[in-house]
């Protein structure tokens, strides 16, 4: 479905103030270097202003204090928020199964499904499960015995939510997410690894979103918990009995070891991790790459490196490491000079 807006209409839609060209027609969104005259783009920082000089875009979203632009501008209090609204204005409706239960779905008679839920083909819902109002389960989703899925949730194809788990409202689980698999719990005895039963479950708070192929393991006892509003990227591992706070962010390939506590508003950048039984303080940030926490991290601290340490200290150490070849040459030169001095000096006792 094609959508067309005048710039004046678009400014209202994104919550911005128009500067020039109110009657210009916009039919889509494009990158600043690729957008044509009928597309809107955005620039969020003044240092990127030079990119606009060569742009053919019909309009640009910029911060309110942004300088002159070669095309009409929509001035925004929060560019990120306005860009999200811009994309939403042109977005196609998200596909979802038809309301009701598909004829190929397998639903236990004791399961409770809201009348306006949408249950897609080949979904399996086991005994005593509950599916909330306006929730959509796409093809191949599995919901285990006694598991509760809240209202307005979307579970994309092949999501697995095993038995005894609780999923809050407005949760989105992308394809192949697994909630409630057993954690890596074994003890070594008599020459072999012996399994430790995982008898607990998982609780996902409201407004949680989990990216494709990520896993949140069930607890050995009690619950592994993910707080309200936390966002988890693709290929992330949250181990058994972790307690993750509210509004955290986990970027791709991040991982958290068993029973670690992560405070509210923490960020694990790509490939960052924490070993088991740690406490990560509220607002802490783990830098991308091989930032691995092997000890507790205080509230609000940014860390990097392996093992993770305060970021500025890590940067200073990296700078010294880069200087090692030069320092080695200087040491070699000093040694040669010292040897020459020693040969030129009479050292008789």
For the report, how would you describe the main beta sheet?
12 strands, mixed
What is Rg?
28 Å
Distance between the termini: 98 Å
Average predicted local confidence, pLDDT? 92
Q: What is the total number of structural domains?
A: 2
Biggest sheet, spatial arrangement of strands: 8-11-14-17-20-25-28-31-34-37-39-40
Please provide the count of β strands. 40
Helix content: 10-25%
Give me the secondary-structure category.
Answer: alpha/beta
What is the CATH top level name of the largest domain? Mainly Beta
Q: Based on Cα principal axes, name the global outline.
A: flat
User: What is the third-level CATH name, the topology of the largest domain?
Assistant: UDP N-Acetylglucosamine Acyltransferase, domain 1
Number of helices: 4
Low-confidence stretches: none
Strand content: 25-35%
Short description:
With 349 residues, the protein is of the alpha/beta class.
Describe this structure in words.
With 349 residues, the chain is α/β, with parallel strands linked by helices. The protein has two domains: 5-90, MurE/MurF, N-terminal domain (Udp-n-acetylmuramoylalanyl-d-glutamate--2,6- Diaminopimelate Ligase, Chain: A, domain 1, 3-Layer(aba) Sandwich), CATH 3.40.1390.10; 100-311, Hexapeptide repeat proteins (UDP N-Acetylglucosamine Acyltransferase, domain 1). The longest helix has 21 residues, at 324-344.
């Amino acid at each position: 479905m094609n959508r067309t807006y005048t710039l004046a209409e678009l400014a209202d839609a994104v919550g911005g103030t128009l500067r020039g060209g109110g009657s210009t027609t916009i039919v889509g969104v494009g990158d600043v270097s690729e957008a044509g005259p009928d597309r809107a783009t955005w620039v969020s920082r003044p240092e990127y202003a030079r990119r606009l000089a060569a742009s053919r875009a019909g309009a640009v979203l910029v911060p309110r204090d942004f300088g002159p632009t070669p095309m009409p501008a929509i001035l925004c209090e929060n560019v990120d928020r306005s860009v999200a609204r811009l994309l939403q204005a042109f977005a196609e409706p998200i596909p979802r199964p038809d309301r009701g239960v598909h004829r190929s779905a397998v639903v236990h008679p004791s399961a409770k499904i809201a009348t306006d839920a949408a249950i897609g083909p080949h979904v399996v819902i086991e005994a005593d499960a509950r599916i909330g109002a306006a929730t959509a389960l796409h093809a191949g989703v599995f919901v285990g015995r006694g598991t509760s899925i809240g209202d307005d949730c979307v579970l994309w194809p092949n999501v697995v939510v095993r038995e005894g788990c609780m999923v809050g409202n407005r949760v989105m689980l992308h394809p192949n997410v697994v909630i409630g698999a057993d954690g890596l719990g074994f003890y070594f005895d008599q020459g072999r690894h012996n399994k430790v039963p995982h008898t607990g479950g998982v609780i996902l708070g409201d407004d949680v979103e989990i990216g494709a192929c990520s896993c949140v393991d069930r607890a050995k006892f009690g619950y592994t918990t993910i707080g309200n509003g936390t966002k988890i990227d693709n290929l992330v591992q949250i181990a058994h009995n972790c307690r993750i706070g509210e509004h955290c962010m986990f970027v791709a390939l991040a991982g958290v070891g068993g029973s670690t506590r992560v405070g509210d508003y923490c960020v694990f950048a790509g490939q960052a991790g924490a070993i088991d039984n740690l406490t990560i303080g509220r607002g802490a940030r783990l830098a991308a790459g091989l930032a691995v926490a092997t000890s507790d991290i205080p509230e609000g601290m940014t860390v990097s490196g392996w093992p993770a340490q305060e970021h500025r200290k890590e940067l200073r150490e990296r700078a010294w490491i880069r200087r090692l070849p030069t320092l080695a040459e200087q040491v070699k030169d000093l040694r040669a000079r010292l040897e020459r001095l020693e040969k030129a000096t009479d050292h008789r006792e």
